[in-house]
Specification:
Blueprint: E1 3-4, E2 7-8, E3 14-20, E4 23-27, E5 32-35, E6 64-68, E7 90-95, E8 105-107, E9 112-115, E10 118-124, E11 130-136, E12 139-143, H1 157-172, E13 178-185, H2 196-204, E14 206-213, H3 219-227, E15 246-249
Helix pairs in contact: 1-2
């Protein structure tokens, strides 16, 4: 590692940009990963990633891998498949509930894949589709999709109890993993129960950086809940991001 003026210079291993809801772009040393991109329009008069959207022309020279956890409209748009006309080196890794071109890799829960030097494992979502654990360029990245502890006020207690059991069973599969970057739902619609999923994740999984997601446009509410919570390793949880915001992972 190089030094400058007697100080150690930090090297970024990844750059992470928030797209919307559960959508993120992650640039590593050799790949450009896109997770659950559904919003095709940039915000605030900005273009491309600065506006929280993907401009395929910007990525024409990148090694792009697009992940889709499931077919819900707040995680997926058919517009992502048009990017193949602009990006020569692009691959699609989708849950098997997504209607995709035959060139895409369709994944089921609890399977492992090696695709062009990228190792991918899937978990079963507690809603639809899959969650991803991706090993790429020396990084371990977890994206939950809709795998969350969905505990709804007023729901049948038996349903809520089963949801908790199902969530814990899946997250326990990660207990021995050392994850660098994790994207985990914090949904304000769950009100006082919105942190159940991330709290259990932090208790169970060794993750260096945890990034909340699935709060839509309500980052303020999600941030307020996290600030007042007593969660293990809370210092590893990043404050909910705004569209187009980019942070680094060292």
């Amino acid at each position: 590692m190089s030094k400058e003026k007697g100080k150690e210079q930090k090297i970024l291993k990844a750059q992470i940009t928030y797209l919307d809801n559960s959508g993120f772009a992650v640039k590593t040393s050799g790949h450009f990963l896109i997770f659950d991109c559904w919003n095709m329009k940039a915000t605030q008069g900005k273009k491309g990633l600065m506006g929280g959207a993907v401009d395929p022309a910007e990525l024409a020279g990148e090694n792009v891998v697009v992940f889709v956890s499931h077919a819900h409209g707040d995680h997926y748009s058919t517009g992502i498949f048009k990017w193949a006309g602009y990006i020569p080196n692009i691959r699609y890794i989708v849950s098997d509930d997504v209607r995709a071109p035959k060139e895409a890799y369709a994944l089921k829960p609890h399977e492992a894949y090696d695709i062009d030097g990228i190792h991918i494992r899937t978990l079963r979502s507690t809603d639809e589709g899959v969650a991803f654990l991706v090993e790429v360029d020396g990084l371990h990245i977890y994206h939950a999709g809709d795998l969350n502890w969905w505990h709804w006020e007023g729901e049948d207690p038996r349903w809520n109890a089963k949801m908790g059991d199902d969530y814990k069973r899946e997250i326990d599969r990660l207990a021995k993993e050392k994850i660098d970057i994790a994207f985990v739902p914090v949904d304000p619609r769950l009100e006082r129960d919105q942190l159940r999923g991330i709290a259990y994740f932090m208790e169970t999984v060794d993750a260096k950086m945890v990034i909340p997601m699935h709060y839509g446009r309500d980052a303020t509410s999600a941030a307020h809940a996290l600030e007042g919570a007593h969660i293990r390793h809370a210092g590893r949880v990043i404050s909910p991001m705004q569209r187009g915001q980019t942070i680094g992972f060292e």
